[in-house]
Amino acid sequence: MKLYQKAPTPSSRRVTIFSKLIGVELDTVEVEIREGENLRPPFSDMSVNGTVPLLVLDSGECIAESIAICRYLDLAFPNQQNLFGTSAVEQATIEMWQRVVELKGLYVAFQAFRNISKVYEDRENCIEEWGHESKQRVTDFLPELDARLAQSPYLAGDALSVADITAFLMLNVVQGGLKIELGSDLPNLKAYFDKLATIPEFS
Ligand SMILES: N[C@@H](CCC(=O)N[C@@H](CS)C(=O)NCC(=O)O)C(=O)O
């Protein structure tokens, strides 16, 4: 089994943080995405979406999409971490926060970064105005997360879950790529980010 990735990218890190938390060591292959290696065979022949990460099983089956890969690892390597939850209500609550933070946070932050920085202008039409609108939308989403974290130590409740991995990576893009500060108006979100940053597997 091999994980094709670009180590520092948020989507690759979703899988590597998850796999470390459940104690699964992965063989990795670096894909030079800035140089377009992901857009050409052999990678493009293996991946349905042409992006990293991609998990290639020993059987030759290929699994794209970071959350699908995490789901596979969680089921293929039984563990006690419950990062996708156990009871029906836990699983649904984790899925709910995972989707909220992905759709209103991580992917909006990606759009902001890609369209403002134009890092991928060799492969997509970058619209700077859309980048700035996306940056505003993700900025507006942060108080919603702050309010949730005033009530709950982790996004989906009392325990760490896959939704927190997504939130952590979103907050990295927000602060790093987009230079949005988690200021004194977002005390719960800042404390949450600092708490997650101390977990060794998140480094
Ligand atoms: N929904 C996908 C997103 C994957 C994605 O956007 N990967 C980026 C790196 S974070 C990538 O491969 N970018 C290269 C490109 O867009 O050409 C997932 O979660 O796996």
UniProtKB/TrEMBL annotation:
Boundaries of each GST C-terminal domain copy?
Answer: 87-203
Q: Per the record, a Pfam family? A: GST_C
Q: Where is the GST N-terminal domain?
A: 1-81
Its protein name is Glutathione S-transferase N-terminal domain-containing protein
Cite the InterPro entries for this sequence: Glutathione-S-Trfase_C-like, Glutathione-S-Trfase_C_sf, Glutathione_S-Trfase, Glutathione_S-Trfase_N, GST_C, Thioredoxin-like_sf
Which species is this UniProt entry from? Vibrio ulleungensis
